[in-house]
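Put briefly, the fold is written as integer tokens. The lines below illustrate.
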Amino acid sequence: MPTAAKLFAAFAFAVVAFFAAEVFKPHMPEGTQFGYFSFVSALIGVVAGWRVMGPDAGRGNWMAVNSGIKTSACAVGLALLIFSTYEMLRLAFRPAYKSPMEAIVGIFDLAVEFSVSLIAWDVIMVLVVGGALAGLLSEWAARRWN
């Protein structure tokens, strides 16, 4: 059921995910082609905000901050899975893997490789502070239009 809190959470986490993707780009190797990386990250933020933060809104400010940080972590996990799978499929069309099982294991290898680049203070600050503020925004919407 659509609510104001879900709508505000989806919008807020789309913004957080977009800016986190923009901050993340300089930490990748030089020459990396990003394409629609930021916009796909924003779409992941919309889904995470709607499905994770939206239902948690309306339980108080501390719960909103905690749920916002949890939603940022869920968005990061989903983004790692999606982008690692995409990269694995891209590499699979160049015969980089010898078997399908090696390709599936390659998803997790790529996710670990991407997460090493993700551990930077500026990216973490955008995710934590942005997630907390987005959680508070959805909490405000839940109280305002309840």
Q: What stands out?
A: Residues 61-92 form the longest helix (32 residues). The chain is about 80% helix and 0% strand. Helices lie at 4-24, 37-56, 61-92, 100-118, 121-144. The two ends are 13 Å apart (CA to CA).
